[in-house]
RNA sequence: GUGGGAGUAGCUCAGCUGGUGGCAGCACCUGGUUGUGGCCCAGGAGGUCGUGGGUUCAAGUCCCAUCUCUCACCCCA
């Protein structure tokens, strides 16, 4: 029986993890600059939470959730609902008026996998709760754009407003009236959408539908006074921050809870999945979930999609170099035991030490040292052990000198640590505070 | 859920109209150097050709089924 990972679930192998760590590091750095705090959330929630927030009739809730139907719980398909549940549950709104929170982790949706889409995928998710001002919308988008920029990625930002419960229903009706005149020219999917989710027709990929949609009523013409003013201030705020963006009145979001501002970061090279990140405002949702009457806005980026873009940009996936500071090559049983002990002492001092116990030839051990990117190799043979010395080879300049083994093992380790540390430029020296032997 | 493409060594892939699985590349191991890495040279190891049936004297190759992966639709980060 051959056991393998199930469809749509992927292992992230060590070489690739380096990229993930880089993305997470840049994300935390930027989010902290914007004064966001991390929150860590459970993966399982009551099914009701998602049904009520994302929308009972959305595809996600209707057919894509991993649910334990006998227990009424579901693996989260997105982060916002869980985050708001935690926010409400812990009464966080009484601590301060505005909360900026982020979380990073896996999400689960039972869709057919394809490029940039998996059944377990990962998002970094940022939410601002308790602020209704348009400047907040702009700040959040600016943060997303800065993140992409600092990762070295290019993506365009498209922005729209979906209105609010005051103005959207009227627009929806107007749109349905328009579409029904052209039912026979729409694709099959769109004919279905007229009754299920007419706004979806706006971003259909079918050329005929796109043609028709061009002359359809625009949501931006149908906004109520408050929404219209909000959107105008979002745009002027983006301009003030120097954020480049494109208004796109045809952009629709899939989750029911969005109101007013919605946006997507669009990238090339992602196959059919062009959105690397997306988000929007959800002004009624917190109350809907039983919380206080507070506004919110947030976005999520797909980490797998960021990884794809980074791979595209930098095709050379060079193996990680310099995994150890020093490699210890032992020849003979006596020397092996001595080196075994020394390697552990070095590691206790904070030095990354590598060693091989299989008694292979010096040549093989040198090769291993080279592969690990060791800066130094300490060569200890049984005969040298008698003379209390070893060879210390600098792997970069190929020089080699004698190294005394007359001191205690602890002193030997400290001496090696000093040599290794002093071989590094000052700004690359590790912080060895609290690591003493 | 619907449609296309693909499964041969750890990875990337050759393999023509059926006739013994490749001196293939990368990676790995050993040797060239009785104890010195990267480059080079030589050698070695590694496979139920996704799986199961069928046609045939003979199937990696043709046919059917099935599984898996992949791209796209739907939908979405």
Please give a structural write-up.
This protein is an alpha+beta fold. The chain folds into 2 domains: 14-167 and 223-313, BirA Bifunctional Protein, domain 2 (2-Layer Sandwich), CATH 3.30.930.10; 326-428, Rossmann fold (3-Layer(aba) Sandwich), CATH 3.40.50.800. The chain has 15 helices and 16 strands. It has helices at 14-33, 47-54, 59-64, 80-89, 134-150, 168-180, 188-196, 207-214, 225-241, 285-288, 303-313, 333-349, 362-371, 382-386, 409-422, and strands at residues 37-38, 44-46, 66-68, 73-75, 99-108, 120-129, 156-161, 246-247, 259-266, 275-281, 296-302, 326-331, 353-355, 376-381, 389-394, 400-404. Helix 1 runs antiparallel to helix 5 and helix 12 packs across helix 15 (409-422). The protein is elongated, with a radius of gyration of 29 Å. The model has no long low-confidence stretch (mean pLDDT 91). It binds one RNA strand of 77 nucleotides through helix 3, strand 6, strand 10, strand 11 and helix 11.
Q: Briefly, what is this?
A:
With 437 residues, this protein is α+β, with helices and mostly antiparallel strands.
Measured by DSSP, the beta-strand proportion falls in 15-25%
Number of helices: 15
Can you tell me the CATH class of the largest domain?
Alpha Beta
- Cα-atom radius of gyration: 29 Å
The strand line-up of the biggest sheet is 1-5-6-11-10-9-7-8
Fraction of residues in helix:
25-40%
Main β-sheet description: 8 strands, mixed
> Low-confidence parts lasting 5 or more residues at pLDDT below 50?
none
Domain unit count: 2
CATH-defined topology of the largest domain: BirA Bifunctional Protein, domain 2
Structural class, from helix and strand content?
A: alpha+beta
The tally of strands reads 16
Kindly report the name of the CATH homologous superfamily of the largest domain: Bira Bifunctional Protein, Domain 2
User: What would CATH call the architecture of the largest domain?
Assistant: 2-Layer Sandwich
Gross morphology is: elongated
């Amino acid at each position: 029986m051959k056991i393998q990972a199930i469809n749509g679930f992927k292992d992230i192998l060590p070489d690739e993890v380096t990229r993930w760590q880089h993305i997470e590091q840049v994300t935390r750095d930027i989010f902290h600059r914007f004064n966001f705090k991390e929150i860590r959330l459970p993966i399982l929630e009551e099914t009701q939470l998602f049904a009520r927030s994302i929308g009972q009739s959305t595809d996600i809730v209707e057919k894509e959730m991993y649910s334990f139907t006998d227990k009424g719980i579901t693996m989260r398909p997105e982060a916002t609902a869980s985050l708001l549940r935690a926010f409400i549950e812990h009464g966080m709104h009484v601590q301060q008026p505005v909360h900026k929170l982020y979380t990073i982790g896996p999400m689960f949706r039972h869709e057919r996998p394809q490029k940039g889409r998996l059944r377990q995928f990962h998002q970094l998710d940022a939410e601002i709760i308790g602020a209704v001002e348009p400047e907040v919308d702009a700040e959040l988008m600016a943060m997303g754009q800065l993140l992409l920029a600092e990762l070295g990625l290019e993506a365009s930002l498209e922005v729209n407003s979906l209105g609010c419960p005051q103005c959207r229903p009227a627009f929806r009706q107007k749109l349905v009236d328009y579409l029904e005149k052209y039912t026979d020219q729409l694709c099959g999917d769109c004919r279905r959408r007229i009754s299920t989710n007419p706004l979806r027709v706006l971003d259909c990929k079918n050329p005929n539908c796109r043609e028709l949609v061009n002359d359809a009523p625009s949501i931006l013409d149908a906004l109520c006074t408050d929404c219209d003013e909000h959107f105008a201030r979002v745009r002027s705020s983006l301009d003030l921050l120097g954020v480049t963006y494109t208004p796109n009145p045809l952009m629709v979001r899939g989750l029911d809870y969005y109101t007013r501002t919605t946006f997507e970061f669009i990238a090339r090279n992602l196959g059919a999945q062009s959105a690397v990140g997306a988000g929007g405002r959800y002004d009624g949702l917190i109350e809907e979930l039983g919380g206080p009457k507070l506004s919110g806005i947030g976005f999520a980026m797909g980490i797998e999609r960021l990884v794809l873009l980074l791979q595209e940009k930098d095709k050379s996936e060079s193996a990680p170099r310099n995994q150890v500071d020093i490699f210890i090559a032992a020849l003979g049983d006596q020397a092996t035991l001595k080196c075994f002990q020394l390697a552990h002492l070095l590691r206790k001092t904070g030095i990354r030490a590598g060693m091989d116990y299989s008694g292979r030839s010096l040549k093989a051990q040198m090769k291993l040292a080279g592969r690990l990117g060791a800066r130094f190799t300490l060569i200890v043979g049984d005969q040298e052990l008698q003379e209390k010395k070893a060879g210390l080879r600098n792997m970069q300049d190929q020089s080699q000198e004698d190294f005394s083994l007359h001191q205690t093992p602890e002193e030997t380790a400290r001496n090696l640590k000093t040599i290794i540390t002093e071989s590094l430029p000052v700004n690359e020296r590790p912080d060895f505070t609290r690591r003493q032997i």
